[in-house]
Amino acid sequence: MTRSLFFSLVLFLTAALSLTESLHAQSSPEDITELSAEWTRELEVVERIMGYSDLTPALGDSLVLRLQELVQNIRPIRSRIESRVLDIQTAIRALGPIPDAEQTVPEPDPIAAERTRLNEFLRQERSSLALADLALARARTLENQIGAERRNRLLSHLSDQGPLPFELSTIRGAPTVVADYLATVVDIYQRWWRGLTNRTDSTQFLFFGGLVILAGFAAALWIRRELLRRFGHYDCDEPPPYSRRLIGAVADGAAKGILPAAILIVIIIRSETESATIFGEFGALIGLAAGNLMVFILVTALLDAVLSPNDPNWRLTDLPPERGHRIMRLVTPLALLFCIDEFVIRSAEAVPSIAAIVTPAFLSAWTFAFNLAQGVFALALLRPSLWRATEGDPDLGEAEPDDEEEQETRRRRRRPFWHTVHLVLVATTFVGTIAPAAGFTNLGNYLMNNILGTAVVIAILYILRGLFREGIGMATGSVLVKDRLGVSHSSRSRYKIAARFLLDFLILAAGISIVAPNWGVSQTDLFRFIGTAATELEIGSVTISLTDIVLAIVVFIVSLGLIQALKRSLSERILPETEIEESVRHSITAGTGYIGFVLAAALAIAVAGVDLTNVALIAGALSVGIGFGLQNIVNNFVSGMILLIERPIKVGDWVVVGTNEGFVKQINMRATEIETWQRASVIVPNADLLSQALTNWTHKDKIGRVDVQMGVALDSDIPKVCEIMIEVGKAHPKCRRHPEPHALVMSVGESRINLELRIFTSDVIWVMWIASDLRKEVLRRFKEEGIVIPYEQRVIHMLEGDPMARHPRPEPALPREDELPPRDGS
Fold this sequence. Notes:
Elements: H1 2-26, H2 29-52, H3 57-94, H4 109-158, H5 168-197, H6 202-231, H7 242-271, H8 280-307, H9 321-350, H10 352-355, H11 360-381, H12 384-387, H13 404-434, H14 441-476, H15 479-484, H16 489-515, H17 523-535, E1 537-539, E2 542-544, H18 546-574, H19 582-608, H20 612-646, E3 654-657, E4 660-667, E5 671-676, E6 681-685, H21 686-691, E7 694-696, E8 704-712, H22 718-731, E9 742-748, E10 753-761, H23 767-785, H24 803-806
Helix pairs in contact: 1-4, 2-3, 2-4, 3-4, 5-8, 5-11, 6-7, 7-8, 7-14, 8-9, 9-11, 11-13, 11-14, 13-14, 14-16, 18-19, 22-23
């Protein structure tokens, strides 16, 4: 025994020594110290740049990228150090607890030496971990400072008040600046032309540039013709399907705008290319003009294709043609004003010659005039009556429900959101319109340009969204998916919903990434925020990873799907082949489901990285609370879990619980909401649903039986009566053919024969309406056939010894006239 213990101790010490040597070989305190010094130097460089430089947006993005690269280099090192710390702590725990001083047997010297060695390594690794955490904390602090500095610069820029546009000096100087602006543009053109003609290869440059433009023109012309031929509008008497109209709108808008857009894109590329034909300040002006002109053409072309005011059969919206014309008459000048304003403002920023002559006073007057004009058109476009849809056009987009009450419910649900959006847009547009009047030129340009630019982006993304949604619908309904792959209708519906949900998420993310930089949020900060929120969202002292949570949910759902498949296999194929009783088979299947649910939950918790010690603490606290009166709450909570797992009732079921009857609207963790036929909500605790009898009319399906009782005279022809009742039952449109209707003689009474018609229907929810229809039709047929429904007959026998029979009560005698009191009361 002693020998085996000795050999075990030697083997353990050998393994521990090899572990510590490998840990020491991976990283030493000297290595992490050098790395920490390098990290510190990098962070100090960023701090000096922030302190001594003007933090422009481009410089801020560069510094943030530099910090993020540093963080990405630190995190793997920190993870390795943390892993080594955990390994060392495991080795220390394997040595066992330190013996007390009172114990007679001291700790063996090899174990004590190894414990000291491991503790020293642990101290060194923890110090290395602290250095890495310090560098990460400084990097996060610097990123936050850069973001705060950017926000402060934006607020300072927007709150900067310049000259008032109504000042006399501003009004007097505006014509001079306009003349100087035009003269400068002409001078820029002349200098470009002289520089071009003075070059030895000017002829070659002009020929090559013209050839490129001509090639772009030819390619655009061919693409335009093919688009219109294959996907464009065609003459039709009835509106085509929505998917065809959507494709036609995109093709028509692209065809109308692609020809000039292609030429303008070539010009823009040539103006930004070194040693190109269009170069210098003139190239910058041409690029700006081409870009704004391309925006104007594409916006007007796409909007005209969507509204189709001249061809109502191809419109994508339910707006009538006259409203489409009104919208186009407002959008066209608004887009033109926006492009002109954008060209002048950007040229003053990008061209030094123009920037030297454009004064703040001129910009104030210019911005006030153009923002006022753009604001008038924009506010006119924001009128709700202009965008209110016409009713009765179900072929456009989603069909409205036939129930007027449901339509009103949908309108009430949409109204608060769109009303809020409308108020925000109107308020922002109004502020952007009047801000230049108070001298806030930057604020006016910021609001107005961003609103219009965001509207253009949203419109384009909305059209693309509709196109991709229709593409998903056509893909899931294709012959390949339906026939060759054999995907069921329900599965295809789920895939289509999931794909469209993912598409909406991607469209939203793309829209935010495009629009956010214009509103002052850089893409670097946006991606950093998304990455932080997805991986390490900190709430107090708790760090939450949304990616881990999503992965845990996916694992949980997949595990539950596998468990359901196993339960179905057990109940339908495996257990029926055995001689086990049906009740035992049901218990085995249900137990498998419970155990699988627990395993799936445990696996999801493990994937999410939840510390089970915290769960144990919470469970302990709950157990104490149960002892102080939470039994009822916990009982309802557990009952709710059972209801959600076993699903004896589900949302939409018609149930009867005690005296309450109605439809299940919502199953919560504590109680279930039942809506009665009178539209009243009854809240039933979940424990009551499991502890008392419950009738579920639609548990597995909606097939149910309708019973109609009728009574006929005793001398009636019963076979004929039964035949009539069966004919009435079969003739009802909601009657199932299998099982067939039956007419049964239930009893023979004193004055009638009681019969009952029984039919089965596929939708038991209509049982009262079906029964009413059957009764009315049976009564009509009985009347036609002369079948009598007797009244209740009662015979009253008067006994001879009854005093009422011998001495009937006399009628009261009326008083004579002379016995009446006088009329005057005397």
